[in-house]
TrEMBL record:
<dbReference type="Pfam" id="PF00294">
    <property type="entry name" value="PfkB"/>
</dbReference>
<dbReference type="GO" id="GO:0016301">
    <property type="term" value="F:kinase activity"/>
</dbReference>
<feature type="domain" description="Carbohydrate kinase PfkB">
    <location>
        <begin position="27"/>
        <end position="281"/>
    </location>
</feature>
<dbReference type="InterPro" id="IPR002173">
    <property type="entry name" value="Carboh/pur_kinase_PfkB_CS"/>
</dbReference>
<dbReference type="InterPro" id="IPR029056">
    <property type="entry name" value="Ribokinase-like"/>
</dbReference>
<dbReference type="InterPro" id="IPR011611">
    <property type="entry name" value="PfkB_dom"/>
</dbReference>
<keyword id="KW-0808">Transferase</keyword>
<keyword id="KW-0418">Kinase</keyword>
<protein>
    <submittedName>
        <fullName>Bifunctional hydroxymethylpyrimidine kinase/phosphomethylpyrimidine kinase</fullName>
    </submittedName>
</protein>
């Protein structure tokens, strides 16, 4: 088994409305955001996804320029790329999906490139759970598997999603989705219910309020960096997951202690994603930007406790 990362997820056209602006149709999709984030760690990475004949090659180039293997991206010239539109509330932790058009995703049969069937880390990004199961079945060595999903799949494919959760090491899910999945309002109870479904680590994303990591009877909290302006939170969850899987692939250490670090790296990268519309900020990131913000994270969270 070698240090490789395989990412599956949607590749999309998105249309976003925030209280401050409306986008045109822009590049989106879980796989794009996750791959652009994981690319910061420089590990061999491949994406498995599907696009229509309408998907610009300039968007694909954003991946190949970062040495991401796109041989697992199927192009279906007869159909259209997945389309999603959403509107954010004044409280940008909340959004409503306005439209989901599965298009090419409705009949996608994923094929994992031969060079990545032994990847050490597998990111099962936001897609139909049957596609996630099909990819898992193609892996020749058992990787460390991280799962992400969305309200759409919880509503439409609950039983299949439960099956995937039982097969993965970690799930990242936002707080509304954790409540929808478990019918529990308390996030601690929701996490326990999800752990009982068979996964080892549960990360509950709370937008600007950070993320909670649960494992057995332990918990860890990673704050989100307080930012004065949020432009567009779209993709932050996928970028967060990309930071986790990129870091875990690079460090090859899947202990709880190291997963805490991974969650901080994910939070750090997500803090950049929300600064611009779509994936724009992810395209201009430098290692200096990333490292200086990691120090800000350290300063934000470290303190000496004095007992009195
Ligand atoms: P996030 O903001 O991290 O939850 O991710 C938003 C991205 O997920 C957008 O770029 C969408 O294109 C993509 N997306 C939205 N709904 C779905 C869905 N049902 N399946 C797969 N991807 C989706």
């Amino acid at each position: 088994m070698s240090h490789k990362l395989l990412i599956i997820g949607s590749m999309a056209f998105d249309k976003i409305e925030t209280p401050f602006q409306k986008s045109d149709i822009i590049m989106g999709g879980a796989a794009n955001y996750t791959a652009l984030s994981a690319a910061q760690f420089g590990v061999p990475t491949a994406v498995v996804s599907v696009i229509g004949g309408d998907y610009p090659t300039s968007f694909l180039r954003l991946l190949t320029q970062r040495h991401i293997d796109i041989s697992g991206i199927e192009i279906d010239p007869q159909d259209k790329t997945f389309y999603w539109s959403a509107r954010y509330h004044e409280d940008m932790n909340l959004r409503d999906t306005l439209d989901t058009q599965l298009n090419v995703l409705a009949h996608f049969k994923p094929v994992v490139p031969a060079a990545f069937t032994d990847a050490q880390v597998l990111m099962l990004g936001n897609l139909h759970p049957q596609i996630q199961i099909d990819v898992l079945a193609q892996m020749t060595h058992l990787p460390f598997v991280v799962l992400d999903t969305m309200n759409y799949w919880i509503t439409h494919t609950y039983e299949l999603l439960e099956e995937v959760i039982s097969k993965v090491d970690m799930i990242t899910i936002n707080e509304q989705e954790a409540r929808q999945l478990t019918d529990e309002y308390s996030l601690v109870k929701a996490a326990k219910r999800i752990l009982a479904m068979g996964t080892k680590y549960v990360v509950i994303k709370k937008g600007e309020h950070g993320a909670l990591l649960f494992h057995e009877d332990s918990a860890f909290f990673a704050p989100a960096l307080p930012l004065s302006e949020v432009c567009d939170p779209t993709g932050a969850g996928d970028v967060f997951a990309g930071g986790i899987v990129g870091y875990l692939t690079k460090t090859n250490d899947f202990s709880f202690e190291n997963i805490k670090n991974a969650v901080i790296h994910g939070s750090n990268l997500a803090s950049f994603c929300i600064e611009s519309l779509g994936a724009e900020r992810m395209l201009s990131l430098t290692p200096e930007d990333i490292n200086s913000r990691l120090y800000q994270f350290r300063d934000l969270t470290q303190f000496d406790i004095k007992l009195c």
